Amino acid sequence: MSDELKYIENKEGKFAVPCQIKIAEDCVQIGEFCESKEDALYWAEEECWIFSGEGCFCLQCNQEIMRNIAKLQTKKTN
Ligand SMILES: [Zn+2]
To answer: Which of 1, 2, 19, 36 can bridge 58 by disulfide, Cβ–Cβ 3.0-4.6 Å?
Structure first.
């Protein structure tokens, strides 16, 4: 699964996991740069980022998604 994730590499050769959706105003945008991809992924897991088939995203965006779903559900009931 981790092979499908996109990582960002900085000049120092460190890796970070970017938020894939960036829909929240307070989106973290990008995780912390770590020595290895595994560490970057571990960091994201520690921060409780959400992992899906599409990639991963931060808690703030997850909350935004939840809000959007709630909005959609209210629309459907009309
Ligand atoms: Zn985000």
So the answer is: 19
CA gap 78, 58 in Å, rounded? 31
Residue 12 Cα to ligand 1 midpoint, Å, equals: 24
Q: How far is the CA of 26 from the centre of ligand 1 (A)?
A: 7
Q: Which residues crowd ion ligand 1, with CB under 5 Å? A: 19, 27, 57-58, 61
pLDDT in tens, 61-71: 999 999 999 99
If you measure from the C-alpha of residue 78 to the centroid of ligand 1, how many angstroms do you get, rounded to a whole number? 30
Domain boundaries, the chain: 2-76
User: How many of the other CB atoms lie within 10 Å of CB of 60?
Assistant: 18
Residue 56 — left, alpha, or beta (φ > 0 → left; ψ -120 to 50 → alpha)? beta
- Cα within 13 Å of Cα(9), Cβ side: 6
Q: What is the pTM of this model?
A: 0.79
